[in-house]
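Figure 6 in text form: structure in, sequence out.
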């Protein structure tokens, strides 16, 4: 019997500069699958743990060299349920792939000691947070996604992902705009946030 399409374990270790483009091509190819198989594939790519170590090595090299060569790197995929929720709200994501660029990595690590920033260790867990978020919220006002994870005390990690972001010389992607810390109350009391996946605990 045919097996569901699953990601090659080596995909996250592709040495080329345009790893994000490889994953975008995978997503486009998956659109030809039966909807159920397509969603299974996208879910597998969204939740795979394989991306983490490859991202950590790339990010540490970027920070060490303070490199800003315009490289973009895939850190996750939008979950099928979230893609459908966006479509229900009139937003058709051109791809499920979420990327970050080297400029944003350097900026985020530089600010890691700030009161509202993720510390460096949590930032390097970015693929893990995107793969297994506590919750995903939709910002009605800004039309972007918030990936939430638990930190110490009543603090939450908040990863803001802009959907269909035009990245210079790269095309349209889903882009990590910011990664920071916020009080839990900020997420549960603001009416502009709508729960799409999980629960803010």
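Output sequence:
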């Amino acid at each position: 019997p045919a097996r569901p399409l699953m990601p090659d374990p080596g995909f996250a270790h592709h040495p080329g500069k345009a790893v994000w483009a490889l994953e975008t091509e995978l997503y486009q190819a998956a659109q030809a699958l039966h909807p159920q198989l397509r969603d299974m594939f996208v879910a597998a790519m969204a939740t795979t743990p394989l991306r983490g170590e490859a991202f950590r090595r790339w990010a540490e090299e970027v920070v060490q060299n303070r490199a800003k060569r315009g490289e973009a790197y895939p850190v996750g995929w939008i979950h099928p349920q979230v893609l459908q929720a966006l479509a229900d709200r009139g937003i058709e994501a051109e791809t499920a792939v979420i990327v970050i660029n080297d400029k944003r990595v350097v900026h985020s690590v530089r600010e890691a000691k700030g009161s509202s920033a993720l510390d460096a260790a949590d930032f390097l867990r970015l693929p893990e947070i995107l793969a297994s978020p506590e919750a995903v919220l939709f910002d009605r006002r800004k039309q972007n996604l918030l990936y939430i994870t638990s930190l110490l005390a009543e603090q939450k990690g908040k990863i803001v992902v802009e959907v269909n972001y035009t990245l210079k010389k790269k095309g349209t992607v889903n882009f990590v705009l910011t990664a920071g810390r916020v009080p839990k109350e900020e997420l549960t009391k603001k009416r502009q946030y709508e729960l799409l996946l999980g629960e803010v605990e």
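Caption detail: The radius of gyration is 16 Å.
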